[in-house]
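Example S7 (structure tokens).
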């Protein structure tokens, strides 16, 4: 018992207590007749201690480890998901603290919303519940993605969110780290694993294809995530954004004239060529239709009034990332220009276009 206690970093008293309450009962015996931990007991002890470390109470832990339908691998997956959530939450808090420190250093006033915002979960746990208001399947994007999946029967959807682009005619498995997003998946949606792209809990070549839509820019390590997709699937399809083109910041009037901070949001984002390399694929341009049904950042390029609508902005992470100050300034300034006719004057040529190339790219490998 002392040896196991030392290995696990807990006291012998704790192990006695777990034995007394029936949580972890050593089932083997030493030659001298003392109780000893069999491999299955050690496995159970490890699960108990890991759930305890994550803050679960003894009764909850007993329910979790006592669930006969959950084996060791399922426990590891669940623990992994819980730890990733915790890590993301810590990352989001660090980012929020950095933003507040920067604001304070500039002498800016920090609002109560901003101060309390850092206590929220990671980005999509914070903004995720606004997502379904405007983020829907754009059928022209869906056709491109599904064509690129070819004859794949099994498909992994990484950073799946609410599953907007999951093809109904294939066997889909979703991966999504945000509990809020997972919670909004419609009834009957594909099964969803709590995990992150950078470390997919699947064996090599488990799927015919892996897809990722509007998510790579959120990953802590996009190249690692893309390599993981390559590892677990024969075919890889990724809808992402091109920042290779010189002056890409000026491609879209919103970034060019109102929200130059967007460039900062994508400053550490890998090049399109680097991402294509990671999966061994090619890039195809995806024009954004003027009436795009999926309310992504660029979706309203010909409907500028939409950006004045809080609901539209809340469903797009860019606005949360640039911070309230930049958002307020951009919206005020756009509103002024729409009112004065300045926007219309500057962007006269857009009225003629039905679709615009604003840097959206499909990587196919
Ligand atoms: C803009 S949403 C896109 C959701 C969905 N693919 C769609 O097109 O509607 C981005 C998603 O990426 C998820 N995400 C963030 N970090 C991730 C990571 N490291 N690995 C996988 N997904 C991640 C977010 O939680 C969020 O649900």
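Recovered sequence:
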């Amino acid at each position: 018992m002392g040896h196991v206690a030392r290995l696990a970093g807990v006291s012998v008293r704790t192990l006695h207590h777990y034995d007394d309450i029936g949580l972890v009962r050593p089932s083997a015996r030493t030659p001298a007749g003392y109780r000893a931990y069999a491999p299955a007991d050690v496995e159970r002890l490890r699960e108990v201690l890991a759930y305890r470390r994550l803050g679960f109470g003894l009764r909850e832990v007993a329910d979790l480890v006592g669930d006969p339908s959950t084996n060791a691998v399922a426990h590891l997956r669940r623990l992994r998901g819980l730890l990733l959530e915790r890590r993301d939450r810590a990352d989001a808090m660090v980012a929020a603290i950095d933003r507040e420190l920067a604001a304070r250093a500039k002498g800016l006033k920090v609002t109560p919303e901003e101060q309390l915002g850092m206590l929220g979960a990671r980005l999509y746990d914070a903004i995720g519940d606004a997502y379904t208001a405007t983020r829907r399947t754009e059928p022209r994007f869906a056709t491109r993605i599904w064509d690129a999946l070819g004859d794949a029967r099994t498909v992994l959807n990484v950073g799946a969110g609410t599953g907007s682009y999951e093809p109904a005619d294939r066997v889909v498995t979703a991966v999504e780290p945000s509990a809020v997003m997972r919670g909004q998946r419609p009834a009957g949606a594909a099964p969803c694993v709590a995990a992150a792209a950078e470390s997919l809990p699947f064996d090599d070549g488990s799927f015919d294809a892996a897809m990722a839509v509007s998510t790579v820019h959120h990953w802590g390590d996009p190249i690692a995530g893309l390599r993981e997709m390559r590892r677990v699937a024969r075919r890889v399809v990724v809808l992402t954004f091109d920042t290779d083109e010189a002056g890409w910041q000026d491609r879209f009037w919103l970034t060019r004239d109102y929200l130059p901070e967007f460039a900062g949001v994508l400053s550490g984002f890998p090049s399109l060529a680097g991402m294509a390399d990671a999966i061994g694929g090619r890039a195809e341009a995806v024009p954004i239709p003027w009436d795009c049904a999926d309310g992504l950042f660029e979706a309203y390029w010909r409907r500028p009034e939409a950006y004045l609508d809080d609901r539209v902005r809340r469903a797009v992470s860019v606005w949360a990332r640039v911070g309230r100050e930049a958002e307020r300034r951009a919206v005020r300034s756009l509103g002024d220009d729409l009112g004065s006719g300045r926007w219309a004057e500057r962007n006269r040529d857009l009225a003629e276009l039905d679709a615009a190339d604003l840097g959206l790219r499909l990587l196919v490998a």
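Notes on this example. The longest strand covers residues 233-241.
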